[in-house]
Write a structure and sequence with these properties.
alpha+beta; Structural Genomics Hypothetical 15.5 Kd Protein In mrcA-pckA Intergenic Region, Chain A; Pseudouridine synthase; 3 domains; ten-stranded mixed β-sheet; five-stranded antiparallel β-sheet; 8 helices; 21% helix
């Protein structure tokens, strides 16, 4: 492949490339530009067949040996979100990507109602000119997201090449992602796999539901700790009603990465997350908890979910990287309060 000028690339189809889609062929030859970006460039008329300067506007066109293409990648443009000086808890960073800790309460992307104070705003400020651009826009590449009220680790791309490589790992389910959750009840069996398809709930667009015809979703779970609040029994007649319900700390490892996957899967098994406003039972039996436990539950105003492990192959250096963070303080305090007499 010959680079004739900045952001202008030329490549020729070899015999082994015969029959590939145009966008796939270009993504193989231009490994620093993502396939989705190349598809957009084709649709925008930025890919020419050199013989005759013919515009190629069909990403799915099958290529033939001997064909030569010129790809023009426009300069990155400034994004609409502006950088904001927001502190970041960074676990790892190099020229291609970074791994960071997103606190509960922080939105990842600017959106209606949250145009500032987001992770993207913080990353634009932090990275500055080190961002080479994702899909033609000088912004960080968000490979996966964490819900606003979920805490934990994320990997973010700084270059198109890193974004492309990480996205492929995410799509192939080779990225390691594990969560810690505090749930109502104790899953039985204590180790298992939930394989239930997920799809947008037609009755509530804010929710995801287990539905036939949805996307494949697989969660491997393991109970790490049973949480037994102290029992408060007032009389022999209501011993059963007087027993405080058990809870548990559960590890959930994702084989797939669907929206709200852990929250929906655990709720579908009747072990919803503590504090989950969408999927937890509204009236969990708390009347027999200690006052301290009741107060802790009342003050815990988010779903008890924490992304504590992320692992992947570095898309440039090919090094295997794994990062882990401990349970956050608010979840530690909740467990302590639930177990206190």
């Amino acid at each position: 492949m010959i680079i004739q000028a900045p952001h202008i690339y030329e490549t020729v189809v070899e015999e082994d490339d015969k029959g590939l889609r145009l966008d796939k062929f270009l993504s193989i030859k231009l490994d620093n530009v993502s396939r989705s970006r190349l598809k957009s460039l084709i649709n925008e008329g930025q890919v020419l067949m050199i013989d005759g300067d013919k515009i190629m506007d069909d990403p799915s066109r099958k290529i033939k040996p001997g064909e030569a293409f010129r790809v023009t990648v426009p300069q990155s443009i400034e994004p609409e979100p502006e950088g904001e000086d927001i502190p970041l808890d960074i676990y790892y960073e190099d020229d291609h990507l970074l791994v960071l800790y997103k606190p509960a309460g922080m939105v990842v992307h600017p959106a209606p109602g949250n145009y500032s104070g987001t992770l993207v705003n913080a990353l634009i400020y932090h990275c500055g000119d080190s961002l080479s651009g994702i899909n033609g826009v000088k912004r960080p590449g968000i490979v996966h997201r964490i819900d606003k009220e979920t805490s934990g680790l994320m990997v973010v791309a700084k270059t198109d090449k890193a974004h492309n490589g990480l996205s492929k790992q995410f799509a192939k389910h080779t990225m390691e992602r594990a969560y810690l959750a505090i749930v109502w009840g104790v899953p039985n069996p204590t180790v298992g796999t939930i394989n239930r398809p997920l799809k947008r709930d037609p009755r509530n667009r804010l929710k995801i539901a287990v539905r036939e015809g949805g996307k494949e979703a697989i969660t491997h779970y393991k109970v790490l700790r049973r949480i037994e609040p102290p029992r408060k029994i007032t009389s022999r007649e209501n011993i059963k009603q007087g027993l405080a319900p058990s809870l548990s700390l559960v590890e959930c490892r994702l084989e797939t990465g669907r929206t709200h996957q852990v929250r929906v899967h655990m709720a579908s098994m009747r072990y919803p997350l503590v504090g989950d406003p969408l999927y937890s039972r509204r009236n969990n039996p708390q009347k027999n908890f200690s006052d301290r436990a009741k107060a802790a539950l009342s003050e815990f105003n988010r779903q008890a979910l924490h992304a504590y492990v992320i692992g992947f192959t570095h898309p440039v250096t090919k090094e295997a990287l794994t990062f882990e963070t401990e349970l956050p303080n608010d979840m530690k305090r909740l467990i302590k309060a639930l177990e206190s007499v």
